[in-house]
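Table S2 (text version). Query chain:
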Amino acid sequence: MLVALVLFSPLATQPISAADSAWSDLPMPQSVGTVVDMAVSPYQTSLVYLLAFNNGHKVWRTFNDGSAWQLIYQTGSAGLSSIDRFTLARNGTLLIAGGSANGPACLKSIDQGQTFTQFTLPVAIDSTAGFGALSEQSFFFTSFDGSRSRVWRTADGSAFESTIISATPLTILELSPGFAADNNLIAAGADGNFYLSTDGGSHFSALQQSPLVGEVCLAFSADYSASKYIYAASTSVGSGIWRMKVGEPAWTRIDAGLPNGTMLSDIEVSVGGIIYAASSNQVNASNGGLVKKTVFNSSWETARDGLQTGTTLWGLQSRGSKLYSLDTANNRIVVYNDTLASPVELLSPQSGSPGIGTFAAGTIGGIDIVWRNPGGATGFQWQVSDSYDMSIIRFESTTATESARLKNLDPGTTYYWRVRAVTPSLSPWSAVWSFTTALGAPVLTTPAIGSTVQILQPPFQWQPSTGAKSYELMLSTSADFSNLTAFATGIGGNAWQPTSPLIPSTGYFWKVRAIGTNTYSPWSAVSAFTTSAPPTTSAAPTKTVLPTTTPVPTQTTTATAPPLSTSAQTPAPTQSIAPPITTPSVPGLLIGILIGMGCLSGFMVSMIIKTRKQRRD
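Corresponding structure-token output:
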């Protein structure tokens, strides 16, 4: 929709920044003349087209939100002699409609205004016509010949067809967000009638007439393909903002709470479902500016900060969190960066973090949740739950900072958290992140610190930790555990025993930690013990070699230490551990006697044989 603006000199301003949450004015080209219309690319950051009039129509382009402008087209003897409308297609093609020496014509540029191609239109697209485009080949516009209104369409950019709609002018034409898939578009007129096509403009059916009259504006919900919601408003005083679900018979008024006498020049609905409407009332302390309503707030909010008194907003186009409007009172484009339209960004702890926090007095504390201020937020609300759907809130509060410290949490428990801005306006809730609190560190009991153990496969024992599913144990001969003797994992109880003997007369260090579901405890305090010296044994007697003729038996004695008892040194573990079984040795004296008896028997047999032989001789 076009409107002539009062000419003022360009104002010296700075480009807006991403952190601004108030209105700023876009720097204008020098000698811009009267600003007529704008086209904001929803897909390319900071790309804006401007239509102005100064000794003819001119089209300007900026790639950096007004820091620098380039003149890309102006009317003259060749090409278009006047410009009535321009728009951006969904694919970024720039379409400029106007008059030429040969009648109604249109320019198209697929390279952001570097080059243009001109083609003829069947009828003029005047300044009040609806104009929408999918691409340089597929676009739509309305016309009125004094008695009938039509919607024109083309699928190839050259052949046009039309459908007669009504007997009144149609000033609005909008394509649905998913037009490429659903072929839905709506045309509307100043009499409050809306017409829906579900086949790409070949046929239209009338929707329930709205209460709106005058210059009507229309917006689809971002999720129209699922919700079927459309929104409408008009410049008529106090006409309000209305919503309809396509397929249902009634419009619903949703602007309760707006100032009396509010006039609305345009409406937009964000991807997040936020409804924005530009007020054409002059800005003062209680009226004008931008009104917005989020899906999670029952009341309307007003954004006037940064607008001069007397500012009048006309039209509204969005790109991400930024909204652009024409300030008809000051001949400029103004921009509102609604940084709170997007969810707050969470920073730490990272979602899914295991085993965090400090265990003390049976609870976990010392966990800081941290998020990023999107810019402009002065207050936040945070919530913590032990249910993934946040249905039961365990802890919550508000803060002016970007962090909060948690305490009194349960050990070994998974918690979920989220944050939103609450001042100066509500933002959507952030994504839900999770973390799992740590377990309490085990307390080591056996072997006692500083003790000397009398067996080389001693049982190890510790106090159990609440919430533990298993334990891990490290055993080393070095205090820094750089040289591991054993690293046991998956220990099912609170006791463990090595599978092979330890080294005698050696100092050992050990520690344990608890393992839970997606969590663990800190390592316990390190304990140390020493293994006892090996038992002493008697030396074997010297063997005496006798002449073979008269063998003399040799007796060997082996001293064997009895098995050591562990009952006095090591308390019984809560997990049953069998002590190592030592098989008693046969006493050395008995062995010597048996050997001697064997030798004596052999000697006696030899003497008997010798005596009998002597008798025969």
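Notes on Table S2: The longest strand covers residues 414-423. The longest helix spans residues 588-616.
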